[in-house]
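Lab notes, practical 5.
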Amino acid sequence: MIAKVFDKAIKDYATIEDEYNNMSIETEIKRKEIKSKIEEQAKRFDEKRKRNRKLFKQIR
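Output from the prediction step:
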């Protein structure tokens, strides 16, 4: 009887641990996607800034 309870508790813990690990992997993937989007936006912003700087120098 006690062995059955412990077996169930161990299985439940393993299931919860697997779900947590999967969740943390998904979170890490989302974090990387967001980081790459921010880096792309920063790169585009920097390119626009450089282009505007060149145009401003030409106007002067």
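Observations recorded by the TA: The chain has one helix and no strands. Residues 47 and 53 are 10 Å apart (CA to CA).
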